[in-house]
Design a protein that fits this description.
Length: 253
């Protein structure tokens, strides 16, 4: 479980997050939603220990994240930030291999190689494994970064807009893959995803954290959070949540 206690974050003197106090369950997939500038990425950075809150605490499975050593954090939490960095000359296989670094510190074992291959296969990257990142499309590169986060084999995966630049089929495939990964089982991961695509949130999220203006609006199970009324209030636009062929969908009216 992630416990966020009375968290404030200021950057360069500007209040970014204020009074965030909630829990995120370990089981399943949590979507973090809210309008542009709501503080979603900033919250994810606090959860990953990338930035230190100005006030309050973040506990992941009981570990005080800002106080934990970087190596300890890296074994507990994998963070995929918004926008993948340019890493010229690196192949997909090498990038995914970097996910194992916190475990082997430069001396990969056969098990590390096996886990890298499993992540490559899991995200449908085998045909691209020897390609350099700069030769890939934006969506292919994005998939490689998600696979790198997966290869870190942390109990928690924090992903900031992992669907950006993906076409509808790959967006759906990656979300369904993440959904499956978050289901109970020996390899289950706790997944927190910043999502702009509300259709994917209603399709896959078990829990939803809604932010607006740096404040927590709601932290609740999907059925409670993702209603037409809540989403319309959150985004100040009429959004309808309904069912099409038995599946929940969200559409802008
Ligand atoms: N270093 C910084 N200094 C000052 N303000 C910042 C800094 N970084 C972010 N902000 C501001 O903090 C607010 C929250 O930004 P954040 O990126 O967390 O929002 P977000 O909900 O992820 O937005 P988006 O959906 O547009 O990606 C924004 O108003 C942003 O301009």
């Amino acid at each position: 479980m992630i416990r966020i206690e009375n968290l404030d974050l200021s950057l360069d003197g500007a209040p970014i997050l204020q009074g965030i106090d909630t829990e995120i369950p370990a089981s399943g997939l949590t979507a973090v939603i809210g309008p542009n500038g709501a503080g979603k990425s900033s919250l994810l950075h606090c959860l990953a220990g990338l930035v230190r809150p100005t006030q309050g605490r973040v506990l992941i499975d009981g570990i005080d994240i800002p106080a934990a050593k970087p190596a300890e954090r890296a074994r507990r939490v994998a963070l995929l930030s918004q926008g993948s960095p340019a890493l010229p000359r690196l192949t997909v296989g090498e990038l995914v291999g970097f996910g194992r670094w916190p475990h082997h510190q430069g001396r990969p074992s056969p098990e590390d190689h096996r886990l890298v291959q499993a992540s490559i296969d899991s995200f449908d990257l085998a045909p691209l494994a020897h390609r350099r990142l700069e030769t890939l499309s934006g969506g292919q590169r994005q998939r490689a970064f998600v696979a790198m986060a997966h290869a870190q084999t942390t109990p928690w995966m924090l992903l900031d807009e992992p669907l950006a630049a993906l076409d509808p089929r790959y967006a759906r495939d990656i979300m369904d893959r993440l959904c499956t990964l978050s289901r109970p089982g020996p390899e289950a991961r706790s997944i927190v995803v910043v999502l702009h695509d509300l259709a994917m949130a209603v399709r896959c999220a078990d829990w939803v954290v809604s932010l607006k203006g740096g404040r927590l609006v709601q932290s609740a199970p999907r059925a409670e959070a993702l209603t037409s009324r809540n989403l319309s209030d959150l985004f100040e636009a009429e959004i309808l949540v309904d069912e099409v062929q038995g599946r929940p969908v969200a559409v802008l009216a």
